[in-house]
Specification:
This protein is of the alpha/beta class. Helix content is about 30%, strand content about 20%. It is built from four helices and 15 strands. The strands form three sheets. A six-stranded mixed sheet has the order 3-6-9-12-14-15. The chain has a five-stranded parallel sheet with strand order 1-4-7-10-13. Helix 1 packs antiparallel against helix 3 and helix 3 runs antiparallel to helix 4. The model has no long low-confidence stretch (mean pLDDT about 95).
Length: about 180
């Protein structure tokens, strides 16, 4: 998929939740962070080494400005599918090796990071249609399958099967109602 298509899908997702072009592009910090990530990721995959390094310096500077303005850190090496939505300002940290599927929503205060020991040490892989609530933490070499809802303030450090609703510290499966209605 090319980055223009991905930016278009992201924009349509923001439009779905309300707002017009002016408010989305100029006043929605989540969109700023996602837009910057899409451009930086395209540069990250750029095939010409010298030009890539020059452009990466610009992208790293732009990323730091976005981090300061929005409180959202999305490194260029992260893998994110189409229609990615960040609902609220601030406190979002994604590890550089994070992988997120298509059509996912993240709320404020979310951390997706490295944790564990030995073979369990690593970064989560997030599936498609996943909703991650405010202040949730997802860590370790785990897989969060498709259509999962992770409730606010939950700590997920074990694998999560499709259509689960996870809640608590550590998070446990409380339902199989999936993320439908939240995405």
């Amino acid at each position: 998929m090319n980055y223009i298509y991905l930016i278009s899908c992201d924009y349509k997702k923001y439009k779905k939740y309300g707002g017009n072009f002016f408010t989305i592009v100029f006043f929605t910090q989540g969109f700023w962070a996602v837009f910057q990530y899409r451009i930086a990721h395209a540069v990250f995959k750029f095939p010409i080494p010298i030009l890539k390094q020059l452009l990466q310096i610009l992208c790293l500077t732009w990323q730091k400005i976005i981090e300061v303005l929005t409180g959202i850190s999305i490194p260029a090496s992260v893998q994110i599918g189409h229609s990615f939505y960040i609902g609220h300002f601030g406190g979002i940290i994604l590890n550089a090796k994070t992988s997120i599927g298509n059509n996912c929503n993240i709320s404020q205060g979310v951390t997706i990071g490295v944790s564990g020991q030995g073979d369990n040490r690593g970064v989560p892989k997030i599936g498609n249609n996943v909703y991650i609530g405010a202040n949730a933490v997802i860590v370790g070499n785990i897989v969060v399958e498709d259509n999962v809802l992770i409730a606010a303030c939950s700590l997920v450090n074990t694998n999560v099967i499709s259509n689960s609703v996870m809640l608590g510290v550590p998070a446990i499966k409380v339902s199989e109602k999936s993320s439908e209605g939240y995405i």
